[in-house]
Write a structure and sequence with these properties.
The structure holds 2 protein chains of 2 kinds.
Chain A (H helix, E strand, L loop, with lengths): L8 E8 L5 H14 L4 H21 L7 E9 L2 E8 L4 H12 L12 H7 L3 E6 L5 E8 L6 H5 L8
Antiparallel strand pairs in A: 1-2, 2-3, 3-5, 4-5
Helix pairs in contact in A: 1-2, 2-4
Chain B lengths: L1 E6 L6 E10 L4 H13 L4 E12 L1 H16 L3 E5 L3 H9 L8 E2 L2 H12 L4 E7 L6 H14 L4 H20 L8 E7 L3 E8 L3 H13 L1 H5 L6 H9 L2 E7 L2 E9 L4
Parallel strand pairs in B: 2-3, 3-4, 4-5
Antiparallel strand pairs in B: 1-2, 6-7, 7-8, 8-10, 9-10
The chains are: A alpha+beta, B alpha/beta.
């Protein structure tokens, strides 16, 4: 495993595509963030982020029984770089994800598609990578001071019907 | 009602039945006949996909209970997948959740099927920096997964103790230059295996092998150290230690509900 700098810490988790793993996993990442010196609010919001990204990967990713999800959390100085990769879902699901990442509007007018809006609100950077084998990777950067910025506090929650 | 059937692409023992529209009393006979045909084809596991269902009448629910009973008698099962919130609430109010398992999607239902009937083993791999203060989070992650998968609090606590001990050992006795340690959890319905790999010196591997082979005796000695592995040996069912160019490898097996 490569680490970028001596002050960075990298945590790599590969899990079965199974919703049962999410509660302990999100608590693990939150606890690690606390260990790495991030404030309580940051840790709690990171927990929400992990829950959303992993739930999406499991529910909308590959439906193969053997499919897996990979989560990498890298703590570098004052930021968390989080990456969640799944083995690729159906084309409509991938299209929805693309739309959700590129827009603050929910991907669909139904109750689905709100998760990525929350992810956008809780992250400084959000990128989607699709590789040739169909794997989907969502990469998020979250900075320590994000929760304290006025911009974050004033971000409106989009209307459900927009 | 519209109903279509399909043999699962993942496991030919499973039949997927896609229901659509209102499921009324008049649909009971057709459904019963269809279930019997499936049973006669020696397929006893059915997933009723109900994403497109708009209403389930009481007589139809009763018919489904009868169909489930016929499958259970053959060693199979009937589960309900994708039912919308309103319909599920109505069924729960009628007590159907005591009879049927509800799953949000087929993927989750397949996972449970693998777990219940195919002796499926799920694997979690974890790579972390070799820092002592990471261990509590690691052990809580692993015990949390055990609880989520239905292991008792006692089992989960013992698994947590095992992870704590071997992870601490891997960091404390590992090579100071090692970039990370690897932990793998293999969890099945009847047992858990915890595997940990780190880099360490040959001498320390010999000490470790001795500690594992002595077990209980180590506790009785005057030394204040070396009790951890003896404790792990007491609460686990098997310990294997091996060594290769990539480092030390410890595998601990803990059976479910054992002791």
């Amino acid at each position: 495993m490569q680490t970028e700098t001596s002050s960075s810490a990298l945590y790599d988790v590969k899990l079965p595509s199974d919703l049962d793993y999410i509660p302990p996993l999100r608590q693990f990442i939150s606890e690690i963030a606390k260990i790495e010196g991030f404030p309580k609010k940051f840790c709690f919001r990171t927990e929400i982020l992990v829950d959303e990204l992993c739930s999406n990967a499991i529910i909308h990713g590959s439906q193969d029984i053997q499919s897996r999800v990979a989560l990498i959390a890298e703590f570098v100085k004052d930021e968390l770089r989080l990456s969640v990769q799944d083995q690729g879902g159906s084309q409509p699901n991938v299209d929805n994800l693309k739309r959700a990442v590129s827009s603050v509007k929910p991907a669909s007018p139904s109750k689905l598609g709100k998760g990525m809006v929350i992810v956008q609100m809780l992250s400084n950077e959000l990128k989607l990578k699709l590789d040739d084998n169909g794997k989907t990777e969502v990469h998020v950067v979250r900075r320590r001071d994000m929760d304290d910025s006025p911009a974050f506090r004033e971000t409106p929650i989009p209307d459900r019907d927009q | 009602m519209k109903i279509t059937q399909q043999v699962s692409p993942f496991d030919d023992k499973i039949v997927l039945l896609h229901f659509e529209g209102d499921l009324n009393a008049t649909d009971c006979k057709q459904t019963s006949v269809l279930f019997q045909e499936i049973i006669d084809s020696k397929r006893y596991f059915i997933m009723a996909i109900m994403e497109q269902v708009t209403f389930i009448s009481s007589p139809f629910l009763g018919e489904l209970m009868g169909c489930k009973l016929r499958l259970v008698e053959k060693g199979g099962n009937l589960v309900i997948v994708g039912l919308n919130y309103d319909q599920r609430e109505k069924l729960i109010m009628m007590g159907a959740d005591h009879i049927f398992k509800f799953y949000p999607d087929t993927h989750t239902a397949y996972n449970q099927f693998q777990w219940d009937y195919n002796d499926g083993v799920q694997i979690l791999q974890l790579t972390v920096p070799p820092k002592m203060h990471v261990v509590p989070a690691m052990r809580r992650l692993i015990s949390g997964i055990a609880r989520q998968k239905g292991y008792s609090s006692k089992d989960a606590f013992r698994i947590e103790t095992i992870v704590d001990e071997i992870a601490n050992n891997a960091i404390e006795h590992g090579d100071k230059t090692q970039a990370d340690i690897d932990l793998e959890l293999r969890i099945g319905k009847t047992k858990v295996e915890v595997l940990i790999r780190n880099k360490t010196s040959t001498e320390k591997v010999r000490n470790l092998e001795n500690a594992v082979s002595q077990g209980q005796q180590a506790i009785q000695q005057d030394s204040t150290r070396g009790r951890g592995l003896a404790l792990v040996k007491l609460i686990s069912n098997a310990i294997d230690v091996s060594f290769d160019n990539n480092g030390t490898f410890i595998r601990i097996t803990k059976n479910r509900g054992d002791g």
